[in-house]
Amino acid sequence: MHRRLKVIIPTVQILAVVGVLVWERMAGTDRMLTDYALPTRQMITNLNLPLVAFWWPFIPVMERFGNYLPFPMVMGLALAMMAFASIGLFWYFVVAEVQLRMRGKSLLRFPNRVVESVKVFILFFCGIGTFFHAYTEAIRPSQHGLARYGLWPVEIALTVVFLAIWGSTFIGISISDFRKWLMTMRKSGTQPGGSKS
User: Fold this and answer.
1) Count of Cβ atoms closer than 10 Å to residue 87 Cβ
2) What is the DSSP letter of 67?
3) Which is higher by pLDDT, 74 or 157?
4) Whole-model pTM above 0.90?
């Protein structure tokens, strides 16, 4: 069953993204687009938040220089295939990491102490940033984020749940790995400054 999850969950995520994009293109009315398709796309985006954060810097570059590239349609298709492949790989990694962590292992732990400490701090601040994003996206009472769509409370609640799960995951992993990092330091008898005790 664990092996099947590595296939099922990435496949479902890819199909969800494809379905939302097709729905957005085929929305017959403006109301269908603004009240249903766009909010659903936003929730799917928040569900894939780490991957979206990875792709985000490339989007403005492609929008600006995409028309100047040779064979723009071919390049666009290639980028779309890369995006879908990255969704599948990302969720495969998520499932694999969860399964490994249940056995006390991880793909995210590094033997180099400097790299491990940097990773811990990055994950912690990513968690804080995700909670702030949840506040600006769904909680703050203004015409920003999902508020501009006039969503039902359940839709906003789902968005908050998705973002809260990612924020808690980032912070939880950083705390857990920081504890293991400290335990490794103590076992090796080495202080953070590199001196032997």
Assistant:
1) 22
2) G
3) 157
4) no
Note the pLDDT tens digit of each residue in 54-94. 888 777 766 666 566 665 666 677 778 888 999 999 999 99
**Token reading at 157:** 């609640």
| One-letter amino acid of 169 | T
Please choose, from the candidates 47, 42, 38, the residue with its C-alpha nearest in 3D space to the C-alpha of residue 163: 47
Nearest CA to 43 out of 71, 13, 65, 70 is that of: 13
Measured distance CA(153)–CA(76) in Å, rounded: 36
Task: Quickly tell me which residue has 């399964």 as its tokens.
Answer: 99
- Asked which of 3-7, 87-91, 136-140 is least confident by mean pLDDT, the reply is 136-140
Q: Which contacts of 153-160 are long-range, i.e. CB under 8 A and separated by 24 or more positions?
A: 155/39, 155/43, 158/43, 159/42, 159/43, 159/46, 159/134, 160/134
CB-count exposure of residue 50 (10 Å: 0-12, 13-18, 19+): middle
Geometric angle at alpha carbon 160, from 158 and 164, rounded to 5°: 120
Question: Which of 45, 177, 48 lies closest to 107, judged by CA?
Answer: 177
Which of 71-75, 116-120, 153-157, 165-169 is most confident? 165-169
